[in-house]
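S2.1 Query sequence (Cyclopropane-fatty-acyl-phospholipid synthase)
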Amino acid sequence: MADAAPRLHALVEQLLGAPFPVRVRTWDGSQAGPPGAPILVVRNRRALRRLLFKPGELGLARAWVAGDVEIEGDLYRALDLLSGLLWERGEDAPTLARSLRDPRFRAAVYGLLRLAGPPLPPAPPREEIHRTGHRHTRHTDRRAISHHYDVGNDFYALVLGPSMVYSCAYWESEDSTLELAQRDKLELVCRKLDLRPGSRLLDVGCGWGSLAVHAAREHGATVVGVTLSQEQAAFARKQVAEAGLTDRVDIRVQDYRDVTDEPFDAISSIGMAEHVGSARYLEYAQVLSALLRPGGRLLNHQIARRPQRDEAAYDVDAFIDAYVFPDGELAPVGTTVTQLERAGFEVRDVESIREHYALTLRRWVERLEDGWDRAVRLTGPGRARVWRLYMAASAVAFERNRIGVNQVLAVRTPASGGSGMPLRARTWN
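Output structure tokens follow.
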């Protein structure tokens, strides 16, 4: 009998104690749920076994990456509807241990076990990272960066477009192009850092070299760019050579902690600090402070999460940690500002550009979907599915104010107290 979808939909609502807001279609062709809603396609019983073995986000992510589940219809709307169940239930949501004491909850679990069938859950998809050793050593940082950034420059070019900038763009309007918005972001960074001919810039986590080239070509700066990704460095060096800037831009495969040719007039850290980790963040800020001359500026562009009632209980996002940014950690913007100040910086400006990242991510998803067949050829179906889910879910998270992104401008103000900042600081506007 073709009744798996009605049974599954009813059992999920029994587990949640709330309506399940999307429609379900199962392997037997049956459907259930609100008409007109996006459809969660459950292709096989294996998907249920993944979810039962790892309840919550990680089990769902494994099923998605393996192709055991799919969304038909508006992916953003589906993620928006599901976000309240997966990510926004609050700190008072029932724990699994408390829920299992509820007879109705136990009955729903047993019903799902019967529907899923007897075999054990399959192994995680091969795209899931397997860790060894401690977090945020030089070795594990290199490995984590390689997992994310050494996917292939051709794949990143497909998603990011000609700018090859992998961080939040800066949009004048929603009708602008991705390339123009990324150029405006590079210009904004350079103007906040007050780069001038002869300024010496250290670009920490330089990516594919776009900021380094822009700073040298448009502002006359001399740039050292460091990355832990071999593929990024190779692409960046090619970009520098094609721009005729090899005398002014030095791209290195180097840990920022190993840079010794200070002092620098300015440091940019764009989308890199998320990889540092809370245990190492003060060290990160202190190293950057030591690399700057007195009066030098730091532009720290970083994603932030919302504060938790119990910060000690905070844990990283299971899907992103396993498939996207291994060992990445987000902190509230207030924590970031405090750590920079503890390291001796004077924080002069904080600008939130949360809505800009949602726009950027939607454009990246559009490019990925338009080039889907090529993306699959370049990286495999599992990796392409990781990226589609990660970027679409992140766009929804920025739109719903679950996470934000901030540019923090800080100065290594000397003992004399002269910051070098103009009286009306926002001269970059």
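The CA atoms of residues 190 and 215 lie 6 Å apart. The chain has two domains: 4-116, 138-411.
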